[in-house]
Structures are given as structure tokens and as C-alpha cells.
Amino acid sequence: MMYPRRTQSQIIRVIDLETTGAAPPAHAVCEVGWQDVALGNDGRWELYGEGGNILVNPGRPMPAVTQAIHHIRDEDVAEAPWWHDVARQVLDPYPRRVALAAHRAAFEEQFCTPALTHGADWICTWKCALRLWPDSPSYSNQVLRYWRKPAGLDHERGLPAHRAFPDAYVTAHHLRDQLNEASVTQLIQWSREPGLLPRVRYGPDRGKEWREIEEESLVKFLTDRDPDVRFTAETEMTRRRGGGHVGRMTAQELLL
């Protein structure tokens, strides 16, 4: 594998967690995987290093529902280290990274607290994909993988899905391409906001682009329970009030 020549500080670490469930402290980490992306002297971002993974003892039985997803069993982690013993070395490596990244990073952030990450900024590759690749049929890590076919992605190295290193490895290819389309600052800003959805998720207008729906329908989404839906509806309403043209956003508009 070729690694880019790079300035030490220009590294972003992609993180993926496998857990016993989705709601800490009731649930805990059972595996962490990582893959770095670095800025080369040519100004392009590329994968850097081999990445890795560590099994973690979650300190509680593994529910069958989650075992069915990642196939990590109680006996696999019985002798593994605790999360607090491995988290800092993975999340706050030397040389220090510019940011951490994950696909749907809000999930990882629940377990990777600021105390463990040294207050790192996060990039959510899911939210950034919504902005940069609005034509994708879906935005899961794996759908983006097969729809986009990122250059250099080794198929076998990205398997099995739903294990920490392969998922981090796949996400790192999405992040690399996003960083080569938009700045780190822009990706972090998008990641701090709710997701800007390209299409309506449900209801009579399901599948339509937001610019295509009638204002009567748009108003109803302004009070939706889903923060991503509300944010998208508010953004579209602001665009209309500003006199923006009707029709889909151009790629350039999505970057602004």
C-alpha cells in the first residue's frame, strides 16, 4: 500500500464501534476499529497506515440481537481489555489528529466522550454524503460503497460488514473523497448541523426533491419530530423566502 507524504498534523482518524446496543450506559463497546486518512504534500487526501481493531470487554452479556449483527460472542471478549483502558490510545493518538470521523458519527460520539477524545471535532460522513452526493439511492456506508465504487477500495479488506475495522476502512474511502471535494472546516460545520436530506422520506411526497413539493406540504414538515426533516424543511423554506430559483440544488450550491 502506498502512503502519502504528509505533514504529521494533517491526519483524520476514522472510527467504527461495535457495541452491545445503542444507548450507553446500559450498553457498551465490544470492538473499536480505525483507519487514518492523511493530507499529502500534493494537497490530496489519501488513506494512511494499516488501521486496526481491538476487541473490548463490555462488562455485560452480549444480547442475541446485537450478536446477530456483528457476530461477536461473549467468549470472544471475555479476556479482552476494558474500554477505558484502550479508548484514549485509539481516539487521541500521537501525532494528534485534526478530527475524528465516523459514518453517522452521533452513534460513536455517545461512547467516545470528549474526555476520551481530548475534545476532538467530529466529521459525520453520512451528513457530508447527503450534501455532496445527493443522487445516491441511499446513504448507508455499504450502499455508498457499491454505488460510488471508491478508487482503491480492496473488496475483501472491507469485509465482513458490521465489524469495526472493515467498516472503518470503507468509511475512510468516503471521507477521503469528501475531503478532496470540500474543506475540513466545511465538513466539520456540516457535521455539527442536522442532516440536509435530498429527498422527502415519507408521506404523499415521498421520494420527491424538497424543491418539488408544494408549500402547503412543506409547512407540515416544519414541526416534524425528526430534527433532520425539520432542518431540511426550514432550509428549503428559507431558500424560497429568499427568492431562490425552483428546481434541484446544483453541486456548487450544496457546497455553499
Automatic annotation (TrEMBL):
It is an enzyme of class 3 (hydrolase). Coiled coil: none annotated. It holds the Pfam family RNase_T. Its EC number is 3.1.11.-. It comes from the Bacteria. Residues 11-184 form the Exonuclease domain. GO terms for molecular function: hydrolase activity. PANTHER family: DNA POLYMERASE III SUBUNIT EPSILON (PTHR30231), EXODEOXYRIBONUCLEASE 10 (PTHR30231:SF37). This is Exodeoxyribonuclease X. It comes from Sphingomonas endophytica.
